[in-house]
Amino acid sequence: MNRAFLIGLLTGLTAVIVWGIQLPIAKDAFVTVNPLHLTSIRYAIAVLCLALILVAREGLGALSYRGAGLRTSAYGVIGMCCSPLFAFVGMALSSAEHIVVIGCLQPAMAALALWLFRRRRPARFTLMCIVAAFFGVVLVVTRGSVAFIETPRQLAGDLIGLIGAMCWVAYTVGVGRLSGWSTWRVTVLTMIPGTLTTLALTALLAAASIIEPPSLAAVLSVGWQLAYLSFAGVVFGMLAWNFGSRRIGVLNSSLLINFMPVATFAFRALQGHAIAPIEAIGAALVVAALIMNNLYLRRQHVLGLRASAGSRTGTDRTHARR
User: Fold this and answer.
1) Helix H or strand E encompassing 128
2) Residue 173: its pLDDT value, please?
């Protein structure tokens, strides 16, 4: 393993751990500051920092949408407003452990979305892994019992979290069509409209007395949590993830992201939270299914490269004989 790959691997893993820990930290902060205001403040801080980094890297021209403002803004509202809001609101009603495991279904959702909208049918092995991961999520959410029906608040939170995960899949598929832009530019130009929409929605709900604005003392009381969510969770997390993923590749990066539930469950255990054995089994099943599918896709990718190389070699030999 070369040094650059090892550094990229450790950096990407650090980002995953940071993201896994941020969910229970946010959950604890919800006791004092509601999810809408927390998300608004967090993204407002993060987008300012990331915009400054983008300008330093690519110049002021990188902030121009160049005729793609409407489409980019739509993606930003879905991914940078709806997705985190649904995830945080769902977590406020349910738990960090449930939301992180539900979020792990995103690769499966993406595969199903490509099958539904672009007619790209997943391989049979991938479909088996999707079913196994879904079963693992069911074990976590229900704790292996139908008694979960008696807790509608938690069930509602899980469903809202699922919608948040779907929004992120829609965002990921959508921004893939923004060709010619750097990862930093896509991130910032989608985060700006997403953050503005979140701020507007929060102000509207506060004006209608549906949610109560937190006092300055309340915000300051969760200062370290807010700093973690803004600087570690978004700014550092994005920097570390982009740095690492460029050095280890997409397949290795997608493998690392599956370990986010491990970080969440471990942090909650350190906080003294009791994790039911069936929840741990369900989470392990989800992670295992996603890892197996990732390894399968990696193998198919390698075989495809070998077949392509073999085809080129055969063509070269034919030309040489001629």
Assistant:
1) helix 124-142
2) 77
